[in-house]
């Protein structure tokens, strides 16, 4: 059984992207994957700074999250779009957990060789699509295989019902995105 992590690049209480990541996690579980939703608010980290890293090493929260990524086979990121890019929270998280803790550790051990799928949800007409371009580039540059299928949910304020399920036509695309994540991860691990 493959092990997948789901997270949102937002810690806002009523984040559309949290809803998207949680729904994606439920879909993956229903499809037979071992899936875990991770709340980044539980892994508070200081702003990445090499001087701080040199003086104190990886923060304990970064170490814990990095360990989860090292143990998973793939992951799904629901990324909000801030000024046509990703959130500082998501970038900072990736920066910290991509760091080596020792000379014997493989570079990018939390990411290299993993499979990822992407999604976004936004009140705007593009659904956060511009942020996904940035996330795709960043992950590709650190050795992650990013699935081509992705979902960008526009008009997100009207897209989810009270149970967190997508009521718009985007549900089929999310389902296809999760199917591709699972199939690609299984093929990658075969």
Description:
This protein is of the alpha/beta class. The protein has a single domain, classed as Rossmann fold (3-Layer(aba) Sandwich). 41% of the residues lie in helices and 17% in strands. It contains six helices and five strands, in the order βαβααβαβαβα. The chain has a five-stranded parallel β-sheet, sandwiched between helices. The longest helix is centred in the last third of the chain and has 20 residues. The termini are close together.
CATH class: Alpha Beta
The domain count comes to: 1
Largest sheet: 5 strands, parallel
Q: How many E-type strands? A: 5
Proportion of residues in β-strands: 15-25%
- Give the strand line-up of the largest sheet: 2-1-3-4-5
Helix content, binned percent: 40-55%
Radius of gyration using CA atoms only:
16 Å
CATH architecture: 3-Layer(aba) Sandwich
User: Which structural category fits the helices and strands?
Assistant: alpha/beta
Distance between the termini: 11 Å
| CATH-defined superfamily | Flavodoxin domain
The gross shape turns out to be globular
Low-confidence stretches: none
Order of helices and strands: EHEHHEHEHEH
Query: What is the overall pLDDT average?
Result: 95
Number of helices: 6
CATH topology type: Rossmann fold
């Amino acid at each position: 059984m493959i092990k997948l992590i789901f997270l949102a690049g937002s810690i806002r209480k009523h984040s559309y992207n949290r809803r998207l990541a949680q729904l994606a996690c439920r879909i993956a579980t229903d499809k037979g994957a071992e899936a875990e939703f991770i709340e980044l608010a539980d892994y508070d980290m200081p702003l990445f700074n090499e001087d701080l890293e040199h003086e104190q090493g990886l923060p304990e929260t970064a170490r814990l999250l990095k360990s989860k990524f090292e143990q998973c086979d793939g992951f799904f990121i629901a990324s909000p779009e801030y000024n046509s890019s990703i959130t500082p929270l998501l970038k900072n998280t990736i920066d910290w957990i991509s760091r080596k803790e020792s000379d014997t550790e493989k570079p990018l051990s939390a990411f290299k060789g993993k499979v990822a799928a992407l999604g976004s949800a936004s009140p705007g007409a593009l659904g956060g699509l511009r942020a996904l371009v940035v996330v795709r580039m960043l992950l590709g540059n650190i050795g992650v295989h990013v699935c081509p299928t992705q979902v960008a949910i526009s008009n997100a304020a009207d897209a989810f019902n009270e149970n967190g399920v997508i009521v718009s036509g985007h549900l089929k695309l999310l389902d296809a995105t999760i199917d591709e994540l699972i199939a690609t991860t299984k093929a990658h691990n075969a």
